[in-house]
Amino acid sequence: MSMEHPRNRRHALALTALMTGLASTSAPAQEGKEPTLSYPRVEPCSERYPPVATPQPDLAAEDAQAGVRQGFGTTRDWGVEDNVELLDAGATGLEEPGLRVHYPEGTSSPGDTEQGGAGFYADPAGLAGAERACLTYQVRFEPGFDFVKGGKLPGLYGGEAPSGGEEVDGESGFSMRFMWREAGQGELYEYVASQDEEFGASVGRGLWSFPTGEWVTIEQELVLNTPGEADGLARVWINGVPVLEQSEIVYRTTEEVTIDGLMFSTFFGGNGKEWRTPVDQHADFAAFRFYAPSS
C-alpha cells in the first residue's frame, strides 16, 4: 500500500501527534530509559524487499502436527499436536490454508498451566545470515474473543530465541514477538540486549488494537544493530498502516547472531490465574511471508 494513500495519510497524521509526545520524553535504550519511538516513514518492508519464503501448512499431512512440520520445515514444536487444527482455503477465506490455535479454558503460559496455545520455529533458507528481514502474517481472533490481560503472538527471532525470563546478553540471540493486551491492545514484546526488564519489554502498547472476527495483517521489519553500536531498528505496520518504529535497539554484540526466522508462539499469559482464559477460545493464523534483501 502506498504511503500516499489517503487512509495512510490520515493515520500518519494522527500517529505523528501521538508519537511526537512519546519521542519527546524518550531516550537511547539503556538502563532506566524508555525506548525511542516514532512511526515508519518508509514503505512497508514487503514492498522494499523481495520475497524469500511463503510457508503454509500441508493439508495432505496425516495430522496437524505433521502438517505444520512439513509445511513450515520444522521439528521444534509444542502444543501443536493437541491445540492446532489445519484450516483449508474455504475456512480461511484467503485462498490459502491456515492454522487454528485453541486456548482451552483455564490455560495460560505453558510454564503456568496445562498447555494452551502452541509454538514452533520456522527457519527458511532464504533468511540464512540475514541482518535485515521482514515478516508478514494474518491473525483472526474469534468473534467476541475475551482478551483477558494479554497473550503472545508470533514474531521474528535470532539465535536461541530467549523468552520466559531468560537472560539476553547479546550473544544468545533475541526474540521480537507481539502481544495482545486488555481490550485487544497491541504491542511489540521483545527480548533484546538493550532491554531493562526481566520478562521482556512491552513496547508501543495501545498504538493499535486487534478487532475480533476479522483478519488483521501484521508486518514486522527488523534491522539488526552493528555489534558495539545501538543502531538496531524495529518497524511495524498493521493492515499496511505505519504504527511503530523503534530505534537504538541492541540485538547483539556479535556478528554471529542474525535473523533466523519465525518464532510462532501464542498463548494466554503471563503467569497466574488472572491471565488465564475463562472459556475455550481460538485464533486463526495464515498468509505467512518472509522477505529479505537480495544482497
What does this structure look like?
- This protein is an alpha+beta fold.
- It has a single domain, classed as Sandwich (Jelly Rolls), CATH 2.60.120.
- The protein is 14% helix and 35% strand.
- The chain contains five helices and 16 strands.
- Strands 1, 2, 4, 5, 7, 12, 13, 14 and 16 form a nine-stranded antiparallel sheet that branches. It has a seven-stranded antiparallel sheet with strand order 3-6-15-8-9-10-11.
- A hairpin with a 2-residue loop joins β13 and β14.
- The longest helix has 20 residues.
- 47% of the residues are buried.
- The N terminus is likely disordered.
- This is Polysaccharide lyase 14 domain-containing protein.
- InterPro entries: Polysacc_lyase_14 (IPR048958), TAT_signal (IPR006311).
Task: Give me the Rg, rounded.
Answer: 18 Å
Overall domain count: 1
- Low-confidence parts lasting 5 or more residues at pLDDT below 50? 1-32
Please give the count of helices: 5
Ends: how far apart?
A: 24 Å
- The CATH class is Mainly Beta
- Summarize model confidence as the mean pLDDT: 90
Question: Level of helix content?
Answer: 10-25%
- Identify the CATH architecture: Sandwich
Question: What does the overall shape look like?
Answer: globular
Q: Give the class from helix and strand content and strand pairing.
A: alpha+beta
Region (Disordered): 24-57, 97-118
Keywords: Signal
Domain Polysaccharide lyase: 96-288
Signal peptide: 1-29
